[in-house]
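From the shared-data thread, chain only:
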Amino acid sequence: MSARKIGTMASRGLQLGFIALVIVHVCLGWSYNVLWDFLPLVLAYAVITVTNRWGGAPDSPGVAREPLEVASPVSGRWSALNSPADRTPSHGIHSHGQTYAIDVLAEPEPGARPGFSPLWPLARRPHDFPAFDAPVLATADATVVRVGDGQRDHLSRTSLPGLLYLMLIEGSVREMSGVDRILGNHLVLDLGDHTYAVYAHLRRGSLTVREGDRVQAGQVVARCGNSGNSSEPHLHFQLMDGPDPDAARGVPFTWRGIGVPRNGETFDAPEATAALG
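Structure, as C-alpha cells:
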C-alpha cells in the first residue's frame, strides 16, 4: 500500500474518530475539556495537508515525465477551468492523482451557460447547463478498469451560499466518505504503459461500458453530469499512473490538435469518429 493511500485513509479515520468522540462525549457526559475532542480533527487535517501537498517521487529522480498526447474527451465548443496550463497542482492539491487534472464546461455559444449568482437563484437544475448530457469520449484505445455509477445528479452550487455549502460542509463529508463520493459517477480507462484516464462527475445511468470492456478512441463511453463534488455540470479529466486515485500520481497530458487550454480559454474539439458505445 502506498504512503499516499495510507495518509488518505488515516485522515478519513481521524475525522470519523472526531465525530465519534464528540457523540460519545455528549452522550456519556465526560468531564474533560471539550477541546480535547478536536485533537483527532487537527491531526486529520495535518495528515491530509501533507498528503495533498506531496507530489510523490518521480518515475526517475530529477526527470519529469513528458506530457502524453491523447484525443480530447469531449467534442464541440468548451472552456477550461482549473487548468494545469496555469498552475500545478491544477486543483491546488496532488491527492487523488489530480496534479494535472482539468475541468471543462460546455460553451456552445455566448450566454448559453448560466453564470455565477451572488445570492439568487441559490441553485439550478443540471438540465439548465449545456454540459449536462453531453457525450464523453474515450481519449484513446483502452480497457475499462473501474466504473462507478448510481449517484444522483444534484443541483448546482453556483451561488455564494451554494459554493460555501460545497466547500465547508458537503466537500468535507464527501472527503470522509471516500474518493468515490468525490468523483461521483466515474470511469477509469487503462491506456497502457502505466497510464490511466479518469472521467468524473458523469450523469447517473449514462455509462455505456463495464469493467473489462475494450473501447476505441472517440467512442462515447458516458455523458456529462453533475454528480460527486461538483459545482455545476462539467467533465473533470485527468491522467494518472495507477488505477486507484487514492494511491496514484498525476501524469501530464496534451490533447491532440488542441494542447492544454488555459483557464477561461474556449476551444473547439472535433466530433467523435468512432462508433457509439
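Confidence is low (pLDDT under 50) at residues 57-63.
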